[in-house]
Specification:
About 50% of the residues lie in helices and about 0% in strands. The radius of gyration is 11 Å and the shape is globular. It has helices at about 10-15, 20-25, 35-40. The protein has one domain (about 10-40). By secondary structure, the chain is an all-alpha fold. The chain contains three helices and no strands.
């Protein structure tokens, strides 16, 4: 069950984020991960 009916702009930004952008934003090597993997690492279940 989803807590948020409508994703916020921050959530949508993460979905559009490339691996390199995620690396700069979070300081982790996410270049090889799919967006869904990044969201799971952030604790968001999709």
């Amino acid at each position: 069950m989803r807590r948020h009916a409508r994703p916020g702009p921050c959530f949508l930004y993460v979905l559009r984020m490339s691996g390199a952008e995620a690396h700069r934003a979070f300081g982790a090597d996410l270049s090889g991960l799919a967006p869904g993997d990044v969201l799971r690492m952030l604790g968001l279940h999709v």
